[in-house]
Write the structure tokens for this entry.
Amino acid sequence: MPEKSRNRIVRAGNDIGAIEQALEALGTGNCVVYPTETFYALGADATSASALERLFALKRREADKPVALIVADLPMARQVAERIPEAALRLAEKFWPGPLTMVLPARRGLHPALVGRDGGVGLRVSSSPVAHSLVRRLGRPLTATSANLAGRPPAVSVEEARAAFGDKVKVYLEGGRLGAIPASTVIAFEGNQFRVLRSGPISESDIAAALNSEVSR
């Protein structure tokens, strides 16, 4: 699609050029909008303090509300997680890539905007080809917060995301209309037991069955 004002809406699909434009924007500390398997996300390089500050300003989100991350695989997850419990490894094998966010103990030095009060960081591997390609080629974790202003419904189209952020976002990756799948299930661990922080596409019973254990209450 033609360039619009100072930003670009580019059709993602398997277009390497579209991903390159998004990577260029991320590499200069800017944010991009990209499709996931659930909703559109606002992406920033999770290792860049200035990019994270820009993201929070764009969303008008309070800095004490951490954002989750998309990683390419378990090795990248270990870059930001201090440890990965055995239960989490089993669930990753079963449900990653997919809409399961696991809150794991964060490594020291991780930006405070990514770490919850319990010291955890939320991680998932996306099953969206666009999201996965973007984070894999970036080589670093990517923020996965929904592409909307704080308190507003998540964007299911590029048009909705652009209505929220306009030219403040440099690149919008078009991935069609989303929202058929709810926001990812979010779980945390106590030892090898889990608890659901947010219900989503992967049910509590499915998780318990995958672990072959009783659901933690």
Remarks:
- Confidence is low (pLDDT under 50) at residues 1-5.
- The helical segments are 16-27, 49-59, 74-80, 86-95, 129-138, 158-165, 204-211.
- The longest strand covers residues 100-105.
